[in-house]
Structures are given as C-alpha cells and as structure tokens.
Amino acid sequence: MKKEFEGQERIYAVEIKKIRENPDLLDEAAGWFHEKWKVPLAAYEESMLESLHGGAVPAWYVVTEKGRIVAGLGVIENDFHDRKDLRPNVCAVYVEKEYRCQGIAGKMLNFVCEDMAKKGIRTLYLVTDHTSFYERYGWEFFCMVQGDDESNLTRMYIRRS
Fold first, then answer.
1. Which of 46, 88, 97, 144 could make an S-S bridge to 57, C-beta 3.0–4.6 Å?
2. Is 112 strand, coil or helix?
3. What is the pTM assigned to this prediction?
C-alpha cells in the first residue's frame, strides 16, 4: 500500500509492506528491528519465519521509502509482560527519527488494526511508556502490567475495531 505523507519540507512516498507477502525482506527487517530494540536477532528471525507459515499472529510490517526501511512494527502473542491473557500485542513500533511527526506511525497502526480485523482479530493490546501518543490513533489506556525482568509497571493500551 503506497501512501504519500506531507512533511514540513518534503513529501515522503512510503509503502507499508507485510513481511508475510514480502519474504525477501525478512533478513533485512529482522536486522532492522534488532538494531532498534536490541532484542536478539534470532528472535525476530524466528517470529518472522513463523509469520510466513501460520495464522494471523505473528505478523510483521515495515514501511519503506525507495527500498529503505524507515518504520515498522509487529503483532505477537505477548510483548514481554505478565498479562498473558491480554493478546495479541502490537510490538516494536519504531519510526526513524527523520520520518517522525509525519503521520507515519498513525497510518501504520491503522493499517495493522485493519489487517488484523480482516483476519478476525478485532482487539489488540500494546505496552508502552508513552502517554497521550497512542490515544491520537484510537488506542485507550487499559491497565498497568509488569514487564518481564522490570521493576516498574508499564502502561497497557487496547484498541478495538
């Protein structure tokens, strides 16, 4: 899906791609997410490989401009927290610094919610330290959760389609 986003100084011609439909991007995407989040590369590779052969979850998405990954996110069963009943989770949301504040994150989140709804998943969860960011895109604060190996609680959001 190609979209144009007006920035302050330029228009970004970006495309949202599903790894499931673009398996040639798997290695690059796994490396990109690993670089951003420092989760082991093998964990991303394994989850993305599983997304090629299974049901709706896991699912991975990247946003590219001129063949370069500039943003991405995933949908996994649990994003490293104690509430295993709150699933699936949107995870690893990231937009490269020079592409931020252009609406790309919102478009990407909406795209993923619509894609999951087509697969019968109408409720998604997301853990984050951000406050007020996700509300702009239809997410609601749900509860606090305990992150794996974390002493502080983390905010859990919900989005129903």
1. 88
2. helix
3. 0.91
